[in-house]
Amino acid sequence: MNNTEKNSPVTTGFKDDKRRSIIEDVLATGDIQINGSRPWDMQVHDERLYKRILTEDALGLGESYMEGWWDAEELDAFFTRLLRIDLSDVRMSWQRKLTLAKDRLLNRQNKKRAILSGQHHYDRGNDLFRVMLDRRLTYTCGYWKNADTLDEAQENKLDLICRKIGLKPGQTVLDIGCGWGSFMKYAAENYGVSAVGVTVSEEQVALGRELCEGLPVEFRLQDYRDVTGKFDHVVSIGMFEHVGPGNYDTFFKKADECLKDDGLLLLHTIGNIFSDRSTDPFTEKYIFPNSVIPSIRQIGDATERLFVMEDWHNFGHYYDPTLMAWNENFENGWEVLRPKYGDTFYRLWRYFLLSGAGSFRSRKMQLWQIVFSKKGIIGGYEPVR
Known about the structure:
Blueprint: H1 3-7, H2 14-28, E1 43-44, H3 49-66, E2 70-71, H4 75-82, H5 94-105, H6 111-122, H7 126-132, H8 150-164, E3 172-176, H9 182-191, E4 194-199, H10 202-211, E5 217-221, E6 231-237, H11 248-258, E7 259-272, H12 281-287, H13 296-303, E8 308-314, H14 319-332, H15 334-341, H16 343-361, E9 365-373
Parallel strand pairs: 3-4, 3-6, 4-5, 6-7
Antiparallel strand pairs: 1-2, 7-9, 8-9
Helix pairs in contact: 2-3, 3-12, 3-16, 4-16, 8-9, 14-16
């Protein structure tokens, strides 16, 4: 018996039994049992869990996992089933209501706050991401068509983007939210282009410049709103989730300003099946502060009268194997990371990766690549897959 089990209070009160019954009933609709024998069943180590979930929603579920109050042998399978449940009738906590109210009143992704995502997530340490990601350090969904490994899937994705925007030698590309420069490096080496990338992460700029040394690639530690210059093409790969609904118009106007009249804009973003103005409180606190997953309507409203949508490609089902591969790499490299990050971080990061895999496997979240032109391509755009 572990320490959590020893210290767990005995549930005897009516309210405690009622709370457990509510959680049991909800989970049962997703074929999840409490203390069941299947790998996706929830194993409860602390009976206080039920009250915590009912009062703190997603934050309580995540933090209690970090603290060892519950487990599931296959956390990804648990979340696949959980996220297929219709939770619209489940009571929303006061913390969630307060967050939603704030998001309607405040621009949580203004310039001052935008840098928080870089400092909180991407600046955790390049050692973590070098263990977890592919050899190119590509921190977005891979394209697993005709791919057997993470390296192949990520290279497929980078090449897919190059082909979708029709890269030609000598052209220039702006990469908004360039990460460690995997796309710019690939495009420069394989298509003979030059690139400028912007990111708010100091760690990404430092390592990216090292990885791209000798190539016509420039890194700028800069907010996208401050970018200047004209480019043949503009891409943004996995950064739009940090822009926020209050800034969608600004983002696309900046992309339009930087894009030549005959160029293409490619947006690669996680997509939501409904319009929201905030993320869940666990993600907000521990993973991606100020992030919001956009919807089709939100993107459509922001690009109306500004761009022609030439192609909309959904391959969200490929984020499942991508996240599972990242988790496998993380697990395999954990002993190297453990002295620096500690066991609580291990449970946090595992929760982040495997809950994400379950979210995409359940089709709760999508992954879109959208190609825009300024005035429409005469004769039409030929979709690339």
